[in-house]
Design brief:
Blueprint (H helix, E strand, L loop, with lengths): L6 E11 L4 E6 L3 H4 L4 E6 L2 E12 L4 E6 L5 H5 L5 E5 H4 L17 E4 L3 E10 L6 E6 L2 E6 L5 E5 L4 E4 L8 H6 L1
Parallel strand pairs: 7-12
Antiparallel strand pairs: 1-2, 1-6, 2-5, 3-4, 3-6, 4-5, 7-8, 8-9, 9-10, 11-12
């Protein structure tokens, strides 16, 4: 059984494409193209299920058409509409050096700051501007933290903890006290 801590979300399947079981796939991370992985993991009725890819082709830098083994008709593909897609962390963290992490890998990680302690959990990554931000849901509400390598001092993949050393003054005084 695949556990939630063994995967991270990379996108969602949209509607069927054509009549041969292809699906439109909107992704936030193209890791499936950059490392050797023959399958993607779909969240079906609360269970993480691997599906082997027959083929895929890119339509843009955020979408692709994917064909899974055993899904042969548009009707079968329709059952995958709005299904979340995950990728196995083990393929990203191998020692071969082929797995390059993207910021989306950290969604679901607990964020701790050296000065302020626990800040919350990374809910999403906002890359709509030049500066990529972690959207962190914490006790004091939503925090926007810079996704910047120079502020990251530790990554505990097993416990899913991201330790940061944020610049002084980045957090408002009331946010730092409540965090």
């Amino acid at each position: 059984m695949i556990k939630r801590e063994e995967v991270y979300k990379i996108g969602v399947l949209n509607k069927p494409h054509g009549i041969h079981g292809e699906l439109q796939f909107t992704f936030t991370d193209d890791i499936f193209d950059r490392v050797e992985a023959e399958y993607l993991i779909c969240l079906i009725d609360g269970i993480l299920v691997p599906f082997f890819m027959e083929e895929y082709r890119f339509r843009s830098d955020t979408s692709a058409l994917v064909k899974f083994e055993g899904i042969e008709t548009a009707e079968q593909a329709r059952a995958f509409t709005n299904v979340e897609v995950y990728f196995p962390i083990k393929h990203v963290t191998d020692d071969s050096g082929t797995g390059e992490l993207t910021w989306n890998f950290f969604v679901g990680f607990r964020v701790e700051d050296l000065c302020h302690g626990e800040l919350g959990e990374v809910a999403e990554v906002d890359d709509s501007t030049a500066n990529t931000l972690f959207v962190v849901e914490g006790k004091s509400g939503e925090l926007l933290l810079p996704a910047c390598e120079e502020f990251i001092v530790g990554v505990d993949r097993e416990h899913r903890v991201l330790t940061m050393n944020l610049p002084q003054g980045l957090l408002a005084p009331d946010e730092a006290e409540e965090a």
